[in-house]
Amino acid sequence: LIEQVMRFPMSRMRSTKPGEVVQALMGEIEPLGGFIGEVIATPAFQGGLLCVYIVFIFIQDPLLGFAAISLYPMQAWLIPWMQAKVVRLNKERAGNNRMLADTLAESVGQMPEIQTNDTARWHLAQVSGKLFQNTLIRMQIFRRKFTIKFLNNFLNQLTPFFFYSIGGYLVIEGELDFGAMVAVLAAY
């Protein structure tokens, strides 16, 4: 982050207050540290469990194993595609927050002129506009995040539904062992 700041043109650096840069850097470093830890730990743990479960299901019945992984390609494509839009909106929100911080710093720095010229309402309108824009962006983020959660949960529950419906029918017809079906459902 500091490397990117060092690349700013001199004209930008002269007009930028050191406090703004420090605040922006510190505000982005904390979430980044937690994110990096989660990026390594969660996929390793969840991926390991997934591999064990899938191998167990394939050992029980290869047909059920293929059924268990049938929706994974769609999830692997759809969820990251939708998540990319959330990431873009988060970047837009961070940019809007920086502009809000600049507007607030400018208003505080010019308080004597604002009171002398009676332009407080104009400055409040600027801040209000930035806050409203931030609210709109947050609403889009929340809608997309909850849509992603809904789709992910729906797709995760679709496979067990088919296990119960189609697998149950096959058990009744005698084409599938009941014990294998129960073991696969427990593993899934």
Q: Could you list some keywords that capture this structure?
A:
single chain, 188 residues, mainly alpha, 8 helices
Largest sheet: none
**Rounded Rg:** 26 Å
Terminal Cα span = 42 Å
Q: How much strand content do the residues show?
A: under 5%
Q: Uncertain spans, ≥5 residues at pLDDT below 50?
A: none
Our count of helices gives 8
> What's the overall average pLDDT, rounded?
83
User: Which structural category do the helix and sheet elements fall into?
Assistant: mainly alpha
What is the succession of H and E elements?
Answer: HHHHHHHH
Strand elements, count: 0
Shape estimate = elongated
Short précis:
The chain is mainly α. The protein has eight helices and no strands.
Task: Write a structural description.
The chain is mainly alpha-helical and 188 residues long. Helices cover 91% and strands 0% of the residues. The chain is built from 8 helices and no strands.
Helix-strand layout with pairing:
Elements: H1 2-6, H2 10-15, H3 18-60, H4 62-69, H5 72-109, H6 111-117, H7 120-173, H8 178-187
Helix pairs in contact: 3-4, 3-8, 5-7
